[in-house]
């Protein structure tokens, strides 16, 4: 009987288990009191240690009265979280600890120098070679090592407060050392600022002297170039040639406008005279005073003619005289208009001449302005260089004066201050007698209770038989020799391979009487006959080989085949061979390896390092990552995997979903469960499932596994053996591998 089966037949009697505590209460109490007494003695003999702390605040100490010009309170440097952490490392640095050790002369105290007053036990350990000799280490390093062990420097979370804690056997030293460390840190920071300020003044002095010379040279170059280029400046801070060019351009535009206006007016007067049109539409003609008087005389004559025409005829001498005068006035007006036209033409010619002169002057000034522009660009570059040098010099002078004043007055505030100094503690922080004694008493009680329970559990006194447990002795039966099935076995024999309660009884009877020839003959007599051949005893017990198992699965259209191998890894070959045979028949087959050692998948993949079902259950991989092809057939394999089995089994409830998905994708899913119990395979069983019990030898272990499976609701169990099966290209299964 296997250990797993035996363990399933007993239960823990909790009443008997916890009753052992009442039976052994005196022993538990005595041992607890002894341990508590030892703890009390240790706390009484232990050297008391005192702890004190000093608190520093990292902040800007610059005041509004000493702050340099051009800066305000918002410009001050504020240390971030990393900066404050860096200051913690500075405080616990070797240089500061050395200063404190020398100042307080800690090397003379045995507490900080183990070699100064070494206990006898320590000397014996050094002589025996079990402990290093502290005298081989320099005294300074021994003191620093002890100080680091007793020192604790940390930053208060979400603040710029640094706490310096120190523990010592002397309460006075517990307060003096953190205060000395804080003072040394502030002194070091002040010296660092002084050195930085001195370095700044030492660097600025020669830089200022050099910049002063460069500023003089740059300004001299500007003046010299301005004199050589003859760049005269006009209004609006512009070059004179450019300013003159602008003025001539404006004059040229005005002259061109006047010329165009005179030519247009003369042309309109000419057209009016040539076409005999009215001159009243020409403004220049109407503006003439002479023409205005002639027009007035003309209007007067026309009025007289109109008055006389009422009483006289057209050929009257007087009317004829008036009309003659009117015609003479028209000739005078036209003559005057011609004079105006000639004057406009003369004005246009004069404007044209002025325009030509201005164009020549503008062209001359253009060339001069272009040369002046190039010279101005060079001059501007020299001026910018001189201005930049001057500004840099002024900036350096301002900083140098500020640094010099701070150096002379020796005022360089440190960005830290001690706001809580350590005081000598009155009570030690170690040892705390009551907490230690209480913890020792409670811990010893719990420890003794656990030891008592484990003793009771391992002795077997707290175990009782489980309900319905069966402990039957089954003799071991030798495995029959390999044989070949007759070629004319009918289909009905394969279907009769499944065993029920009657078949199981025959299997147990055969197991008890295998060695007796008479019983073997009786079993052979009860076997069904096929034609004239006699069925061997194996078929009587419902035992089939790989070929019959394959034929049964293909003919029944089974979707899932669950293989249980109570004999362990050696019997896992049945699932591998069945999967390969059905895959070679043309069906889509997948083998799922649920053994602990990967006995089914390892020979199919030649490795156990592929991701598999544990990775899928642990959500570390997907289906496409865990399905691998068999190296020797068309079958697909899901190995055990590489994930943590404990983590994977937490998601064992996902197995039915995974089985349903695989059943949908494949024609047959073969599951090798190893020596699993019926409760374990219940998650894998579904519609269209066949359960097989793989066996190598019909011993008591196989019989017990068959009994459990049948009693758990699998009466159609089928026994299958890989013994004697050979597959071309595949090794014959042995006792140490699955394929």
From TrEMBL:
PANTHER family: FERRIC ENTEROBACTIN TRANSPORT PROTEIN FEPE, TYROSINE-PROTEIN KINASE. The keyword Iron does not apply. It comes from the Bacteria. It is a multi-pass membrane protein. The chain crosses the membrane at residues 25-46. InterPro entries: Bact_polysacc_biosynth/exp, EPS_ExoP-like, LPS_length_determ_N, P-loop_NTPase. Residues 208-265, 291-399 form a coiled coil. It is found in: Cell membrane. This is Exopolysaccharide transport family protein. Residues 11-104 form the Polysaccharide chain length determinant N-terminal domain. Keywords: Cell membrane, Coiled coil, Membrane, Transmembrane, Transmembrane helix.
């Amino acid at each position: 009987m296997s250990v797993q089966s035996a363990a399933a037949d007993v239960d823990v009697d909790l009443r008997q288990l916890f009753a052992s505590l009442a039976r052994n209460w005196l022993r538990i109490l005595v041992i607890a009191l002894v341990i508590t007494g030892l703890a009390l003695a240790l706390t009484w003999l232990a050297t008391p240690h005192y702890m004190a702390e000093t608190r520093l605040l990292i902040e800007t100490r610059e005041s509004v009265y000493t702050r340099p010009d051009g800066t305000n309170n918002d410009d001050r440097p504020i240390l971030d979280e990393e900066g404050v952490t860096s200051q913690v490392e500075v405080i616990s640095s070797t240089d500061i600890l050395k200063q404190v050790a020398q100042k307080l002369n800690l090397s003379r105290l045995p507490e900080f120098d183990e070699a100064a007053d070494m206990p006898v036990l320590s000397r014996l350990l050094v002589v025996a070679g079990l402990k290093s000799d502290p005298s081989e280490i320099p005294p300074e390093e021994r003191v620093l090592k002890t100080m680091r062990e007793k020192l604790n420097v940390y930053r208060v979370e979400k603040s710029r407060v640094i706490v310096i804690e120190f523990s010592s056997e002397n309460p006075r030293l517990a307060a003096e050392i953190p205060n000395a460390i804080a003072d040394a840190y502030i002194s070091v920071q002040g010296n660092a600022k002084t050195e930085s300020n001195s370095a700044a003044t030492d660097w600025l002095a020669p830089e200022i002297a050099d910049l002063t010379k460069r500023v003089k040279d740059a300004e001299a170059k500007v003046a010299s170039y301005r004199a050589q280029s003859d760049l005269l400046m006009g209004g609006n801070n512009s070059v004179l040639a450019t300013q003159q060019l602008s003025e001539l351009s404006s004059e040229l535009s005005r002259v061109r406008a006047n010329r165009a206006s005179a030519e247009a007016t003369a042309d309109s007067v000419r057209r009016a005279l040539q076409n005999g049109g009215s001159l009243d539409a020409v403004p220049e003609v109407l503006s003439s005073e002479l023409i205005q008087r002639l027009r007035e005389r003309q209007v007067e004559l026309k009025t007289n003619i109109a008055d006389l025409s009422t009483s006289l005829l057209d050929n009257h001498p007087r009317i004829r005289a008036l009309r003659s005068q009117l015609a003479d006035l028209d000739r005078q007006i036209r003559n005057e208009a011609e004079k105006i036209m000639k004057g406009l033409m003369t004005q246009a010619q004069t404007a044209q001449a002025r325009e030509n002169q201005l164009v020549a002057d503008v062209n001359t000034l253009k060339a001069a302005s272009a040369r002046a522009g190039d010279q101005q660009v060079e001059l501007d570059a020299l001026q910018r260089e001189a201005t930049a040098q001057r500004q840099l010099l002024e900036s350096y002078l301002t900083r140098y004066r500020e640094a010099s004043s701070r150096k002379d007055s020796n005022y360089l505030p440190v960005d830290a201050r001690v706001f809580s100094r350590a005081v000598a503690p009155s009570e030690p922080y170690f040892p705390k007698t009551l907490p230690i004694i209480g913890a020792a008493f409670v811990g010893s009680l719990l420890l003794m209770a656990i030891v008592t329970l484990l003793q009771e559990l391992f002795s077997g006194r707290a175990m009782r038989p489980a309900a319905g447990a069966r402990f039957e002795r089954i003799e071991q039966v030798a495995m029959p020799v390999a044989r070949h099935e007759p070629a004319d076995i009918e289909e009905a024999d394969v279907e009769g391979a499944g065993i029920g309660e009657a078949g199981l009884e025959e299997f147990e009877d055969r197991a008890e009487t295998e060695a007796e020839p008479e019983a073997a003959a009786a079993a052979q007599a009860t076997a069904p006959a096929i034609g004239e051949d006699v069925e061997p005893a194996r078929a009587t017990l419902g035992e089939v080989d790989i070929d019959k198992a394959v034929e049964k699965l293909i003919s029944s259209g089974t979707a899932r085949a669950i293989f249980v191998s109570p004999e362990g890894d050696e019997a896992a070959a049945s699932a591998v061979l069945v999967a390969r045979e059905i895959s070679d028949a043309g069906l889509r087959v997948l083998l799922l390896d649920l053994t602990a050692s990967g006995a089914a998948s390892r020979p199919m993949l030649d490795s156990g390092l592929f991701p598999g079902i544990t990775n899928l259950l642990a959500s570390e991989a997907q289906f496409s990552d865990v399905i691998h092809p068999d190296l020797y057939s068309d079958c697909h394999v899901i190995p055990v995997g590489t994930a943590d089995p404990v983590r994977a089994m937490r998601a064992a409830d996902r197995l039915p979903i995974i089985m349903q998905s695989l059943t949908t994708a494949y024609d047959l899913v073969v599951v090798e469960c190893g020596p699993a119990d019926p409760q374990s395979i219940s998650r894998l069983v579904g519609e269209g499932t066949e359960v097989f019990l793989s066996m190598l030898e019909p011993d008591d272990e196989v019989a017990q596994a068959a009994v459990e499976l049948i009693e758990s609701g699998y009466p159609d169990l089928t026994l299958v053996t890989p013994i004697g099966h050979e597959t071309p290209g595949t090794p014959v299964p042995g006792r140490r591998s699955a394929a």
